[in-house]
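Hello support,

Our group uses your service weekly, and this is the first time we've seen a run hang past the timeout. The protein is Cof-type HAD-IIB family hydrolase. I'm not sure whether the cause is the sequence or the server load. Input pasted verbatim:
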Amino acid sequence: MKKKVVFLDIDGTILNNEKKVPQATKEAVAKLKDQGIIVAIATGRAPFMFQDILSELAIDSFIGFNGQYAVHQGKVIHQNYYNSEQMEQLLEYSSNSNHPLIFQSVNEMKATVTNNRHIEMGMNSLKRGHPEADAEFYKKEPIFQALLFNEAHEQTVYEETFDQLRFVRWHEYSCDVLPKIGSKAHGIEQFIKKLGIDWEDTYAFGDGLNDLEMIEKVRYGIAMGNSVAELKRKAYFVTDDVEDDGLSNGLKRVGLI
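Update from on-call engineer: The timeout came from a worker crash unrelated to the input. Re-ran successfully.
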């Protein structure tokens, strides 16, 4: 029997506006698993930031850091981290611009400053607090992703200065910093190759700008009703809002449950 896989974004897809998993979503994921369909989280978050969701949904496969780190059944199958020189250059430039960073490893994250308002607002939107400060954390642990805190109009200069990096906005005051090839789609590609799954049997649900490549890469890329407009234009179809059981309804519409 051919394997099928469903990749699920977290915020705005699995989690509703209250950062909770709707009961319909729990039931839908259980039905997928009962059929032998692989369910994997695909998120921009670091792994330590969604262990509770993995546990709640009994999922053991995921793609984290926007494609930089992939795990199947608890085993790491792909990882791509920065070298310290890249992070040092970014830190020097962002410090001169008074734009703080957060460095993320698999198990923890550290900020480059303390008590920053933009960091507070960005982390609060994820129901997390301001990380401890350690501007040299990138020298101590493999860094898979950095978060840059600035406003949208300040992002362009970084894109022009760092041509080997991508800057993907996820918050009014923050964007993810990724390698040029970094995306959820890249992580999914490594996942699919490792497991030998046919692309015809790949599905994904998302709602944000960091889901664009993923939605286009899989065979059935489905946008939540609460998605950004650009994602809706790229999607195979648009399901209902996360507050209206969009994930469960989308899985029914595509014939998986």
